[in-house]
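Blinded run. Sample ID left blank on purpose so nobody reads anything into the name before looking at the predicted structure. Input follows.
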Amino acid sequence: MKNLVVLIICLAMQSFGYAQIIENVDDISPFYEEFSAIKKGDQWAFINRKGIKVIDFRDDLVCCKYETGIISDTYPVFSEGMCLIRKLIEGVYHYGYIDKNGNEIIAPQYINASNFKDGYAVVITVEKEIVGFNKVLGKNVVSNTLKEYIIDTSGKTIKLLDNARNYIKSKDKTPPFFYSKFIAPHLIAVKTTDEKKWNIYEF
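Blinded prediction complete.
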């Protein structure tokens, strides 16, 4: 009899929408591309519209800033089926992408990367060039240059952007700022290296 009473109560709770699926989360994002990000501690996971966890909690998902009315918040999202991840390599965060199954599609290799839009993303790499040799220190003199590229969802380079500039590693691991932005499908605005003007390119 007791078991029957418990069963009836459980069924009643479900019929009135009181079935508890996930407990004690610290934050919940709006739904993007059928997924919502949920946070516990320093880790994020993704659930679908049925409340089923489709990607387990992990600490490499990248949070982006979003405006919802007058509220500003940060959380990871899927954009065109891809979500940004990051990995600390030699003291610098490198960025890549996973798919909706949590599989790594593009390995973390860029020191900054945007979400995909209309099939493309902007990424930043560091290119090292030996420009001399310091006899006193017995070391090569290396120049580090930031370069921005447009890539497609396979990671293929579509276009090198004309805004190369010197790179100085941030002490707080903050990624370098983008000097470009998509303004329409196949149109990108690129800030000049003196940060005073913009050029517009078709790709």
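Unblinding after everyone has recorded impressions. Residues 11 and 19 are 9 Å apart (CA to CA).
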